[in-house]
């Protein structure tokens, strides 16, 4: 074993796929790339996500308490990175990167048509926002695109490096 820099540990522990988070405030929709998130409960379906105060989306998420978590497949990798490398305070990311907003059923932020999964969410807990920028979201509606069969997701490893899902294995489990 050898020592590993603590500032890079996140590259080893990324909890899930890179996602796109959409918000809407004052008639303006925005999208940001996010990889710091995790499920925290089954029912109600709750997830935690970190959105930095430095992100344009932070104010909208905090004030409207609504967001969509859209899960892109491998084919959107280039757009996902470009979305993450600019600010919605300066441009309309939907138009600039050719993403198609779709109306959500229960909230104002849009779904993203090109993503294979979209989760409509409401903020339910902000007690850790001040200290950690961590929001707890309840998923109120889940959508999948049945035309996208077996999508491969992206996992961020830091500094422009990504891993794409590999082969699925199934092992015996007592859980369904």
Number of strands: 11
* Percent range of helical residues: 10-25%
Choose one word for the global shape: globular
Proportion of residues in β-strands: 35-45%
Contiguous low-pLDDT stretches (5 residues minimum) are none
- The end-to-end distance, rounded to whole angstroms, is 37 Å
What kind of sheet is the major sheet? 7 strands, antiparallel
Structural Rg: 16 Å
- Total number of helices: 5
What does this structure look like?
This protein has 176 residues and is of the alpha+beta class. The protein is 16% helix and 38% strand. It has 5 helices and 11 strands; from the N terminus they run αββββαβααβββαβββ. The chain has a 7-stranded antiparallel beta sheet with strand order 2-1-5-8-9-4-3. A two-stranded antiparallel sheet has the order 6-7.
Summarize the structure.
The strands form three sheets. This protein has a seven-stranded antiparallel beta sheet. It has a two-stranded antiparallel sheet with strand order 6-7. It contains five helices and eleven strands; from the N terminus they run αββββαβααβββαβββ. The chain is an alpha+beta fold and about 180 residues long.
Secondary structure layout:
Blueprint: H1 10-13, E1 19-25, E2 28-34, E3 37-41, E4 46-50, H2 56-64, E5 66-71, H3 77-84, H4 93-96, E6 101-102, E7 111-112, E8 117-128, H5 129-132, E9 134-144, E10 154-158, E11 161-164
Antiparallel strand pairs: 1-2, 1-5, 3-4, 4-9, 5-8, 6-7, 8-9, 10-11
Main attributes?
7-stranded antiparallel beta sheet, globular
């Amino acid at each position: 074993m050898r020592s590993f820099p603590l500032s890079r540990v996140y590259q080893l522990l990324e909890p899930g796929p890179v996602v796109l988070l959409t918000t809407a405030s004052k008639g303006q929709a925005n999208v940001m790339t996010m990889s710091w998130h995790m499920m925290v409960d089954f029912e109600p379906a709750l997830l935690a996500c970190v959105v930095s105060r430095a992100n344009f989306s932070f104010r909208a998420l905090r004030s409207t308490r609504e967001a969509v978590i859209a899960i892109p497949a491998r084919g959107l990798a280039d757009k996902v990175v470009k979305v993450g490398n600019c600010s919605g305070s300066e441009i309309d990311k939907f138009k600039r990167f050719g993403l198609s907003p779709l109306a959500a059923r229960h909230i104002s932020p849009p779904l993203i048509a090109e993503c294979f999964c979209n989760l409509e969410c409401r903020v339910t807990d902000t007690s850790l926002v001040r200290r950690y920028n961590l929001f707890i979201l309840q998923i109120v509606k889940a959508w999948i695109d049945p035309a996208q069969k077996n999508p491969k997701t992206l996992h961020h490893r830091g500094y422009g490096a990504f891993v794409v899902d590999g082969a699925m294995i199934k092992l015996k489990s007592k859980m369904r």
